[in-house]
Amino acid sequence: MPARLYRRGLPLAAAALAASLLAGSAQADNPAPADATLTADLDALLADARLANAQAGVQVLDAATGQVLYSRQPGALLTPASTMKTVTSTAALDLLGADYRFTTEVRTTGTVYGNKLAGDLVLKGGGDPSLLVQDLDDLAAKVAASGITTVTGRILADGTRYDSTPLGPGWTWDDEPYSYSPQISGLTIANDAEYTMDTVQVTVTPGAAGEKAKVALVPAEAPMKFTGSITTGAAGSGASAGVDRRRGANELLLSGSIAAGAAPATYWVTVEDPATYAAKVFAGALARHGVTVQRGVASATGSETSTAIASHQSKTLAELIVPMLKISNNGIAEHLTKEIGKVKGGKGDWATGVAQVKGFLKANGLETPGGRQVDGSGLSRYDLINPAKMAGLLKVAQDKPWFDAWYNALPVAGNPDRMVGGTLAARMRGTKAENNVHAKSGSMSGVDNLMGYATAPDGHKLIFSVMLSNFAGTSPRPVIDAIAVRLASGPAATPSAPAATPVTPKLKSLNAPARGGDEATGAKSGTGTRWEDCESVGRC
């Protein structure tokens, strides 16, 4: 075992794991495992024609011992997509703690005279990725309950807990309107119970034929301007309505038509400047509770001298990783990355947060083989990691005090309950993997990954990491699912032939209204709300 591992002060277990990973990466593509049948079966699955000219990396470990049972390019640097959330979530649980909470405060500057505040109200963000519109209403009620009815100054939006860079390194400009690519701020609000942060819902309701359709925002205070209009077509005429956000502006471009008598269509669109957006929603809540703010909303500098008068705490981190992993919520992952940087490194930015995550990996013997991480969600094409490190992370996680909460937060294959099955709700149904495999998926154009745990019928648990990159045309996802099913079926299993039905790419468009939960993909469909299954639509 390399002496340098001990000189760096790694614990014995971590050093042993590091040596095991290095050995696994150095061996031939298909080393002789304990079960030769498994090798033959997985080799046969990976020979699928859909993987021709693509790159496949696979690592299978015995969960109890860490023994490498199967390996195919374990050290290849591949694009993780949303499987990067396994790294971010485990680091956050370890560095911040499963009971960690975010706190949002309302603070005052100046002096209160009777029912009048001669000064400003500060809405001070604490990085909460789950702050809801209702939570702001509750804070407004607390302000009113304190006796304040008039604020002579402004509401100051304070998102300065994190840096002023709203979008991650390597995120693409054409994803910006879509809800899987929210702007990241120390102060932001979520618009639904799944914490779809920094978005506004745009509902289009048809009128009588020939009239303009009604367009409404939820929340109504969202700072959106409309350009153009949507007309109401004849009954049965179909829909061609378009709701597109102009890049870099809170301006929605309306076009097309919706048929008379059709159901209202809802679109989800991101908002520029999340902190100001939150403050405007808060201003509306204050007005409803009888508090008048005389000078509107402005941005805080973060250096204001102020006194706290109300606060809201988020759910625990152990609870927040459920939507983060189940439905692959990118915003939560990025907030955790910046929060790790703020708490452990003194700066709420991506570079500091990622450096702390790397420190977590190193402390657990996972600093090698190398790779590259620039964000927390895997939205960036700059991210690179290999199957050996991913499998090693899953092995390390088992010995952590937070493991049970984390394991249960992973999507469960074939379970139709959205907050159980998550992105795997419609996958591997009717197989040995159903309600068995706990795993994180991750996909974007030309990339599809799955990594997690499979339990054989005899109770033997396996760890697996399957990463496919650089494919075009028909999706090879059935191959990935067949591998997971094979691992869940035990040593005597025969591999199922993966289905040959092509997966039709979904085109990302603001013109496709939300339909709620989409069991076909495990994703929440609609305007940019595709957390997963992102071939040709985005980067989750």
Automatic annotation (TrEMBL):
Signal peptide interval: 1-28
Domain of life according to the entry: Bacteria
Keywords of this entry: Carboxypeptidase, Hydrolase, Protease, Signal
Spans through the membrane: none
Region span, Disordered: 493-540
Any one GO molecular-function label of the UniProt entry: carboxypeptidase activity
Compositional bias of kind Low complexity: 493-505
Basic and acidic residues composition-biased segments: 530-540
Gene3D superfamilies, per the entry: D-Ala-D-Ala carboxypeptidase C, peptidase S13 (3.50.80.20), DD-peptidase/beta-lactamase superfamily (3.40.710.10)
Keyword Protease carried by entry: yes
PROSITE patterns: TAT
Family from the record: Belongs to the peptidase S13 family.
Full protein name: D-alanyl-D-alanine carboxypeptidase/D-alanyl-D-alanine-endopeptidase
Lineage: Bacteria, Bacillati, Actinomycetota, Actinomycetes, Kitasatosporales
